[in-house]
Every structure is written in structure tokens, then in C-alpha cells.
Specification:
By secondary structure, the protein is of the alpha+beta class. It has three helices and seven strands; from the N terminus they run ββββαβββαα.
Length: 145
């Protein structure tokens, strides 16, 4: 089976609302699961630029990067364009601060984007690695339990 290596970037975008920290989660149209916005790094892009672009496209918001959060690596098997292939994916995630925009302005790849409390996000997310990112972001932001 052929191995494909992919590099993506995404973000944990946050804001303070009524004294609580909220983060953006998206529901994908293909899998129908809650996750953080992320996507492939295009040729000529840095991971930071791709992360900001993907959050803008998938969540409809503009952010600024505060700091790198983590790099997640995983393997999966898929048959997107013919025979099954093994994919090795590396995703650079950044902690981001919300600047402006509306989560209803997301692109067609997303069914819904929404702001949720940081603890609720941890419960909603489909992937354990992304739940750990939320915990790390919470720690960096100094959010109370």
C-alpha cells in the first residue's frame, strides 16, 4: 500500500464572552463530526499562514496567532482517488485570538461552525488529540475550571 505524507495547519481560536473563554468548533460536511478548523498547507504558504487561512475559510473568522500550540501526527487509510493508501498526517496547531468575522460565514466544507465554552468544546470534539489541544490551550490561557 502506498504511503502519502501530508502537512496541515489549524487553530484553536478563542475569545472572551461574558467572562468565559469560548473556542470555535466546526462540524464537517463529509464526516459530520465536531473538530477544530484545519487543512492542507498550500504551496508557498507557511504553516502559520495556512492555519489563519483555514480558520478564516472553515470558521468564517479572522484571527491572529498568539503562539504555537502543538504538532499532532497520525496515520489513517483512505481511498479518496482510487486504491486505498496509507496517509501520514502532521498538523501544526496554533493558539489564536479572535479579531472579527461571523461563524456563519464558513465555507461549503463545513455544515456548522459555532462558539462554545472551552470545557464544552473538549466534550464535543471527536478526536482525543484535539481534546488534549483544548486542555493545553486552556492552561495557556489560564482559564479556571
Amino acid at each position: 500500500m502506498e504511503n502519502i505524507h501530508q502537512v496541515s495547519a489549524g487553530g484553536v481560536a478563542h475569545r472572551a464572552e461574558d467572562g468565559q473563554i469560548q473556542v470555535v468548533v466546526i462540524k464537517t460536511s463529509t464526516e459530520g463530526r465536531w473538530q477544530l478548523p484545519k487543512g492542507m498547507i498550500d504551496p508557498g504558504e507557511t504553516a502559520q499562514i495556512a492555519a489563519l487561512r483555514e480558520v478564516r475559510e472553515e470558521a468564517g473568522i479572522t484571527c491572529e496567532i498568539i503562539e504555537p500550540l502543538d504538532v499532532i501526527e497520525y496515520w489513517f487509510v483512505g481511498a479518496f482517488d482510487g486504491p486505498k493508501k496509507r496517509y501520514h498526517k502532521k498538523v501544526h496547531f496554533y493558539l489564536m485570538k479572535y479579531l472579527d468575522g461571523d461563524v456563519n460565514d464558513h465555507d461549503h466544507e463545513v455544515v456548522e461552525a459555532r462558539w462554545v465554552g472551552i470545557d464544552q468544546a473538549k466534550k464535543m470534539l471527536a478526536f482525543a488529540t484535539e481534546k488534549k489541544l483544548i486542555a493545553k490551550a486552556k492552561g495557556r490561557l489560564g482559564a479556571a475550571e
